[in-house]
Amino acid sequence: xxxLVESGGGLVQAGDSLRLSCAYSxxxxxxxxxxxxxxxxxxxxxxxxxxxxxxxxxxxxxxxxGRFTISRDNAKNTAYLQMNSLKPEDTAxxxxxxxxxxxxxxxxxxxxxxYEYWGQGTQVTVSS
Length: 128
Fold this sequence. Notes:
It is built from no helices and 11 strands. Strands 2, 4, 5, 6, 9, 10 and 11 form a 7-stranded mixed β-sheet that branches. Strands 1-3-8-7 form a 4-stranded antiparallel β-sheet, with no helix packed on it. By secondary structure, the protein is mostly beta strands.
């Protein structure tokens, strides 16, 4: 069974940076597309961005484009979310997610919210 464990959250000030990590175990990481989501208090969960199984393509929500970067290291079975120029409105619980999609064969759009496996989340708080 796939397990995802996020780490790297914390309390930072506006303008600071954080890097979240998502450690994958259980199956073949390099066969899975990865997504990062967030959920702020009282709000619905939203897709922050995604990265394909081989890392050759990424997608970002407009709210984070130019500030956040998603990457992956298939040798380390880990995905990352680099967050720069953080704003108070970025405060949320951040989740990574995985879905099997080698070669993009399942035809999911980059902004699809459909994922099979989820981590437990890590909290990010940005103070003004």
